[in-house]
Amino acid sequence: MSPALVYWASLPFCTFVLLLVLERLRPLHTGRASTGDWLLNGSGLLAQGLLIPLLSLWLGQQLAMQLPSLNGILPGALGAFLLSFVGLDLLYYAQHRYLHSHAWWLHLPHHSSQQLGAWASARNTLWLQPLFVYVLPSALLSLLCQDKQAYLAGTLLTASLDLWRHSAIRWPHWLQQRHGWLCWLLITPASHHLHHAAGTTAINLGANLSCWDRLFGSYAAPQGYPLRYGARTRQSAWQQLLTPWHHKPDES
């Protein structure tokens, strides 16, 4: 395994640990996690941190055997990285927009959290985890790339940014101001926290880049952090995890 691949493979874990430390030192929230949070957030981290990568790896191997003529037809490291970091990001934006408009009940468990944090980034019903574009669509795009490591680097950077944009850190004012320019390029924590604010509509739907929201009219500029988070639901944590189609909530 090359040193570069070791670096990229360790990036999400190191990012997660660093964000947890910063959230403890400079917390944005003061509330404590509920039992439901431990169930939904913990199972999500296990799924996205272990089970989904293994499933993606297996799918990639199967596709390579079934579609050998498509394996590695896109040369170059830069093209592979951009296909992952930019191309897959557009697919995620489209899927995320669909979830908010046509399959809200399936996405609601992610938005039921009353506070955000790095560990809430993977919070979801178990049924949605294997349906994300980071599984089968990502395996298909990876198949096309000659440089699989560069493609993997894009997905691991995306995973790290996902943790970052969900993180709940009270940044110093001067640093918060200096980071304002990042909103023109990336979905920042402030932008994504607005997406999770109580009573909001489908805004700031992108994962890595804010250009998709600006292009398709779903961008909203953050003005600080929300006072309240989460969508109301009558479902228990177990129902959200295992049977999200039952006992649908009042709001959409």
TrEMBL record:
Mode of membrane association: Multi-pass membrane protein
Sequence intervals crossing the membrane: 6-26, 38-60, 72-94
Compartment(s) where it occurs, according to its Swiss-Prot or TrEMBL record: Endomembrane system
Keyword Transmembrane in record: yes
Occurrences of domain Fatty acid hydroxylase (ranges): 81-218
The UniProt record lists the keyword Protein biosynthesis: no
Pfam families (UniProt xref): FA_hydroxylase
Origin: domain of life: Bacteria
Keywords recorded for this protein, A-Z: Lipid metabolism, Membrane, Oxidoreductase, Transmembrane, Transmembrane helix
The protein's name: Fatty acid hydroxylase domain-containing protein
Organism: Chitinimonas prasina
